[in-house]
Amino acid sequence: MRRHYATIKDIAYALSISVSTVSRALRDTHDVNADTRKMVLEMAAKLNYKPNFNATGLVKNSTHNLAVILPAITNYYFSTVFTGIQEVAYSNGYNLILYVTNDDAAREENIVRNLSFSSLDGLLVSVSSKADASHYFQEIIDDGVPVVFFDRVVENIRTSKVMQDDYNGAYEATVHLIRNGYRKIAHITGPAGLTLTEARLQGYLDALQRHKLAVRKKWIIHSGFSQQSGEEDARQLWKLNDKPDAVFAVNDRKGIGAIISFKQLAVQVGKEIGIIGFTNDPMSSIISPSLSTIAEPAFEIGQRSCQLLLNHIRKKHFIPEEVILPGRLIVRESSRRS
């Protein structure tokens, strides 16, 4: 049996006041005094009143629905980001509709082109690895749909974006390896062209150059973001005549994959080859040896992204903001030579 929720009429009847007075009190308009509003809110709670967003949406042109498009939901990073989004959305009375692309550019475009924007107030997006996403996202922004990008963003679209500090995190990770005595540092990274891939690559390159260490093109491998990609990249590096003595992985999943491959190759991680990742996935502390990493503020990225989207929705001429949040170095066994 469906639970019964009170209506505005029920509150008005219980208090012997007009429906319009209850409506204005619930909306906290200027012409309702504080005592009346307090009385209405107390009765609303007592009668289990819930606002009908479908009805109010017809009046305010608002649905209280937000769509979230993610490349994946099963990994730690994106599930944590989504939890942050969810906290802000629900506390502001918004529902979430989740779409997962499985990192497939064609699926992402199909999702966007088939969204019903009449039933959505806005869109939060982390783009897939290979998506040339600027054209179809620009189209919906031009149509007046608020969009905020996070983590994997579209560089040439003017809207709000929330990212971790990819450049400085990569720089710090590489310098950490250098300070621990590693000199031949490889980088197993993500697909070329993504903003985060390019920023982390540049941080790695600048760290090597400022410490006067060699940059070898064959030590830089672009591939996917998965553990399997990390395993394959590590094996490729170990086939080289000029082998590296350390690896900076674009994320922890690739770093974990590298650890697995090197262990299978009987290479001692830490002593013979240092490894550092980027995320602070819980698996990075469980695998043996444990993986050093740059911890990303995933939960806060979700919170800030959703809050920015609500700002766009509430203010028609909101000026887009770019938010960059710092990471944190966590040192574990994989980058210790002792």
UniProtKB/TrEMBL annotation:
Residues 6-60 form the HTH lacI-type domain. One of its GO terms (molecular function) is transcription cis-regulatory region binding. It holds the Pfam family LacI. It comes from the Bacteria. Keywords: DNA-binding, Transcription, Transcription regulation. PROSITE patterns: HTH_LACI_2. SUPFAM superfamilies: lambda repressor-like DNA-binding domains, Periplasmic binding protein-like I. This is Transcriptional regulator, LacI family. It comes from Chitinophaga terrae (ex Kim and Jung 2007).
